[in-house]
């Protein structure tokens, strides 16, 4: 694409791109120029998820340099007792685009660049509200809004807290799944439980009548200017001394954490006011515990009366089913609407390579079949919960898949569970320009169907387009059915003399 631009010049290059790659996978340059595409999709019963797909075209060297400098605290990255290497930057994998074709990547430059990213997301909210008639969604990435070091440190805290629970109570998994009470903790600590600092720790634990939900007061941590170093401390069960679970963090970095949360809150508040749903994209496993924790807290805050925030779950990860069970339990106990986007995942090869190189357990499923089984298991669990909740379920799910068998499986499950297409529980999503033979029949049959619609200036979405091209090299070999349908329709138009036939839709999206 770059060579073509050099040969033919900018204007002709843009015209060629709009007639080919750009025209296939991108809706237009700005919110005015994407309107015809959005309205045409809508006329066939298909809604839109808008994504401003501009990204920097960085060299590998520049990407690695930025990521390493933004992933290490000013206090250093010295080895500490209980440290989990998985949640620390590794030079060989600092370019997070490594072996990733389908996901957009943000590299932190400074706080001003995060503010700029926030402005782009706010413009997407305006576009969704103005064009999609309250049916659209928008997608955001948390790495666009803050320093990656903060997500790494927060993820490590969450996993160390799980290890701590395992140490004192046995069992594995999320703190909530242990169903321990404050009284249990008092027994674990014995005489140490009388120490003022241990009593203060237990006073701040988040719990309800069913037991402990979180070891830390997450709502306060995300709402108020609480010091992270002071917040993430736990009593040593042997000595009663308080020990820090978070690695060293400077006052300036604490302020950056506040800035990241401020940006996210601002985006979601405006989205809620504009009646726009926000999907928080999943990212690498070393960021994901923090992203999911923040996302769940945003659901607790903003999803009290309706769906506003959706979290994304990658089913190629072996832990996803258990994470979903835990999050469903939290949503039930804290009484908020739980929204999920279910995907297979974008970082499989990178995750496997990083785990092998750094010597930790591979977090991914061992095969394509295992990933599909994981996806279907998660889907069946969620829809089973929907059925159990009755007429007004507080669960919503997007089945984001290009796999026809998975979509058929979801439809079959809906029938078995008595969930209708218009029940506002299940929706389906595919990328603009791909798998139209799945999306359009769904929309026309009355199901809630979405296209993930990228937009942005030709020049600035080239990295996105090059990824789509790379992805489709392998993808095209797999979609014999879609290619066959397209060739059949081209043949029909040639024979019938309708070469420039343009069908008109008269459908209304659910």
TrEMBL record:
It catalyses: L-proline + a quinone = (S)-1-pyrroline-5-carboxylate + a quinol + H(+). One of its GO terms (molecular function) is proline dehydrogenase activity. It holds the Pfam family Pro_dh. Its cofactor is FAD. The keyword Disulfide bond does not apply. Its EC number is 1.5.5.2. It comes from Papilio xuthus (Asian swallowtail butterfly). The keyword 4Fe-4S does not apply. The lineage of its organism: Eukaryota, Metazoa, Ecdysozoa, Arthropoda, Hexapoda. It is an enzyme of class 1 (oxidoreductase). One of its GO terms (cellular component) is mitochondrion. Belongs to the proline oxidase family. It comes from the Eukaryota. This is Proline dehydrogenase. Converts proline to delta-1-pyrroline-5-carboxylate. Keywords: FAD, Flavoprotein, Oxidoreductase, Proline metabolism. Pathway: Amino-acid degradation; L-proline degradation into L-glutamate; L-glutamate from L-proline: step 1/2.
